[in-house]
Write a structure and sequence with these properties.
By secondary structure, the chain is α/β, with parallel strands linked by helices. It has one domain: Alpha-Beta Barrel (TIM Barrel), CATH 3.20.20. The chain is about 40% helix and about 20% strand. Strand 6, helix 7 and strand 7 form a beta-alpha-beta unit. The structure holds iron/sulfur cluster (SF4).
Length: about 250
Amino acid sequence: MMTDYSPHIFRIQRYSIHDGPGIRTTLFFQGCPLHCRWCHNPESQARDGNETLMPAPGLIDSLIREIEKDLIYYDGSGGGATFSGGEPLCRPGLLMALLAACREREIHTCLDTSGHAPFRILEPAARAADLVLYDIKIADEEDHKRLTGRSSRLILDNLKQLSELNIPVRLRFPLVPSMTDSRENIGRIIDFLLRNTGYRDIHILPFHNTGEGKYRQLNMKNHATGINPPGPDAVESAARVFDRSGFNTTIGG
Ligand code: SF4
């Protein structure tokens, strides 16, 4: 059986409880168009192109077998498979094949995306998944570019279109001290969501610095060195701002 899934998938995490509802198996896709300064998966950033070619059938069969190992846990917990990264929309051929195979087997799926992809790629994947986990990090275009390498424009436009199509989305806001946590940024995000989408559920993901060792191993600069995870007061305070604007706020995945 195939066990090396590179260069398509760089990690498979079983028994995950932070990547959507219930107990899940998360497949981390290689490649990401963003370079978020707080990223704790720097190994995902080696590629950033859109690879539309369909991967070998052996790869898909092998990955489905991995997902099926924990069917019993999905059934008991309302879980399933999550396609994360990196950015799974960088590999639409593989992603669509896996989403279709899971739907055929009635396995619940989440698409965990930064939203930075052409809508013609995002839309079919979002429709093929049961739930989209969508990161909203920084609203201001220039700040987004400075801290992730790309403008927020495409991400915000895509989210507006998903909302117009009533695609089920769980928003996720990474709370990163000195990068995303300003009242100004949170205010702009709220303003955008209220004006342009019907989404009112948001999950706050407090920053953690578990990527430090990986940056050392990969000989990459970690821009988040020295940043500590936000304390409980800071997390609560951010949650209150969303709550007061009418959002259902959850701390964590
Ligand atoms: S979108 Fe996610 S995987 Fe990509 S650079 Fe940002 S934090 Fe890392």
